[in-house]
Structures are given as C-alpha cells and as structure tokens.
Write a structure and sequence with these properties.
single chain; about 150 residues; alpha+beta; Immunoglobulin-like; four-stranded antiparallel β-sheet; 2 helices; HSP20-like_chaperone; Small_HSP; A-crystallin/Hsp20_dom; T786P28D
Amino acid sequence: MMIRPIPFNIRENAERGREVLEKALDFMTEQPCNPLGRVSGALSSFRVDVIDTPDRYEIFAELPGFHKEQITVSYDDGTGYLTIKAERPEVDMDVKYICRERRTGTFERTFEIDGIVKDEVSVSFEDGVLHIVLPKEPAETNKTVFDIQ
C-alpha cells in the first residue's frame, strides 16, 4: 500500500501552460500592487499534510476562503489518483483594482493511492481545512501454510 503526491498533471499542465503565462503577463503589466502574488497563485497549489497510520491515510488540505460547494474530491480507479480540486471564480475584470492579492481560478492537488477501501472514505470541511480519511484495505499475507501428511 502506498500514497504518493503527484506534483502536477503533465498533460493538463502543458495545455494550460500558455494560458497561465498569458494571464500572468497581462496581470503583471496591469496591476501595480504585488503582481507576483497572483502569478505565484496561478502556478502553485494549496498546502497539504498527509498522515500514514497502520489502518488509514489522512489528508489535511488548507483551503481558506473556499466554500465546500467549490471543492471536489474524486478518485479514479483506472489510475489510482485521488484529486482535490478547488475553484474560485474570476472576479469582475472591469473593476480597476488598486491592489489585488487574492487568488482566483482552479487549484488542484493529485495523489497516487492504492489499497484503500473506497466505500469507507470520509471527507469533511471545517474552518477552511479539508479532511479526508482513506481507510486501508487489510494487509494480505503472502504466507502459505502446507498440511503435513
């Protein structure tokens, strides 16, 4: 059994790379107050803690300012990827900001996980922290005992 963070989705990252760069450059040329704050937000994700106990994995994700309706947690059986995605809509671009530091857009973290009991996974969100409990499948023994005749 294992859990491993995936730094980014290579295919999706490549497709969005140009769009992210264009938005970052536009923003840096338009906003005088801390332009790199938003750029770094577009290129990074949120912080997580991952705990491995004998019977489960636990993930704590910091998502301050989000509502639970803006967060999706999904598991893909084919790849074994657990994805946490949070979306904060873009603000009105017609507004002239003096300073704009709050991040908007889609934020995502992906973990490769195997050996979990999907029917017993629990997800909760309180005080800006997402908590995911992923119970592990019972460990299989590779030991065979033979009858003596």
